[in-house]
């Protein structure tokens, strides 16, 4: 199959953009789906023995933060209390990753068709028309999922802000106790995933133009579309309405036939009715 492939299509915009869509779809869902982060806080109680200066809170995709818990000291000689983060942002994250995975699969399938089934793809323009509709759907899905995930990421940053999480600890309400953040979570990978989402949106919108040119709709809308192999009227035979009727010299035999049996010119300078009336011999004429 590799030997029979038409890989020159990859140098054209139609195939080259599909390669970019395939690559950036991987970047989008991998940077979001493989994320795991951590932030650290410290609670210093009046009684130093009850303090905890390294409270670590880990969270990851799909960001069901209401299931993430940590233990914090009470500063009252009691066992540490278990606290949970606030919020569930799995819907927007999973939606974003799902669109990325399906875009990756469709781009890979399209590249296979372009390289090995290009003639069937362009046959009757049905392949490009289906490709255009599916690409338009993916462009819209990238718009929705990228916007939803951008909003979800903003909420994740707020819910995992150590300064906000500290307020959930009861011991931090006491003025004699000191609570502070130690490390903020690193969310640069999540920021990159949002950027890749909007890059995919631009790629899929740009791809619509090149697929649209393959559909044949442009020529149809412009009035220049001519269906292939239209039935042309067969030329009639020349004997019916062609050259035979227009040629005044054409006779029943297809050409000019002189009639020797009609009027002729004799040697005396007059016309005769035919060669059969001429003298049969020179002696009779004398």
TrEMBL record:
> PROSITE patterns of this UniProt entry?
MARVEL (PS51225)
Identify the main location. membrane
- Look up and give the membrane topology term: Multi-pass membrane protein
Quote the biased-composition stretches of kind Low complexity, using this chain's numbering.
255-279
Q: Name one GO cellular component term.
A: presynaptic active zone
- Which residues, by range, are in coiled-coil regions? none
Q: Does the keyword Glycoprotein apply?
A: yes
Where is the segment annotated Disordered? Answer: 231-286
| Ranges for domain MARVEL | 9-216
Domain of life of the organism in this record? Eukaryota
Give the location in the cell.
Answer: Membrane
What are the transmembrane regions? 19-38, 95-118, 130-151, 194-212
Q: Which UniProt keywords apply?
A: Glycoprotein, Membrane, Transmembrane, Transmembrane helix
Q: What family does this chain come from, according to its entry?
A: Belongs to the synaptophysin/synaptobrevin family.
PANTHER family reported for this sequence: SYNAPTOPHYSIN (PTHR10306), SYNAPTOPHYSIN B (PTHR10306:SF32)
Please give the name of this protein. Answer: MARVEL domain-containing protein
Q: Which organism is it from?
A: Pogonophryne albipinna
- Record lineage: Eukaryota, Metazoa, Chordata, Craniata, Vertebrata
């Amino acid at each position: 199959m590799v030997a029979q492939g038409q890989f020159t299509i990859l140098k054209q915009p139609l195939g080259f953009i599909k390669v970019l869509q395939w690559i950036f779809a991987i970047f989008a869902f991998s940077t979001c789906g493989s994320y795991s982060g951590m932030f650290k806080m410290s609670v210093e109680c009046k009684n130093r023995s009850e303090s905890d200066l390294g409270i670590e809170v880990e969270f990851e995709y799909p960001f069901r933060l209401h299931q993430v818990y940590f233990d914090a000291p009470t500063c009252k000689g009691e066992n540490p209390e278990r606290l949970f983060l606030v919020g569930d942002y799995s819907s927007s994250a999973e939606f974003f990753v799902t669109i990325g995975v399906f875009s990756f699969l469709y781009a890979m399938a399209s590249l296979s068709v372009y390289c090995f089934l290009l003639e069937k793809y362009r046959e009757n323009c049905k392949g490009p028309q289906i490709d255009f509709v599916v690409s338009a759907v993916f462009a819209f899905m990238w718009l929705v999922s990228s916007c939803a995930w951008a909003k979800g990421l903003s909420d994740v940053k707020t819910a995992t802000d150590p300064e906000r999480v500290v307020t959930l600890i009861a011991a931090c309400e006491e003025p004699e106790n000191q609570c502070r953040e130690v490390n903020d979570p690193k969310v640069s990978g999540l920021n990159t995933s949002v950027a890749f989402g909007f890059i995919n949106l631009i790629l899929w919108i740009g791809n619509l133009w090149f697929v649209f040119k393959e559909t044949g709709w442009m020529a149809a809308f412009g009035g220049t579309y001519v269906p292939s192999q239209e039935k042309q009227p067969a030329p009639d035979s020349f004997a019916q309405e062609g050259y035979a009727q227009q040629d005044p010299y054409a006779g029943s035999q297809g050409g000019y036939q002189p009639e020797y049996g009609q009027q002729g010119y004799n040697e005396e300078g007059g016309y005769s009715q035919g060669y059969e009336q001429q003298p049969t011999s020179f002696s009779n004429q004398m």
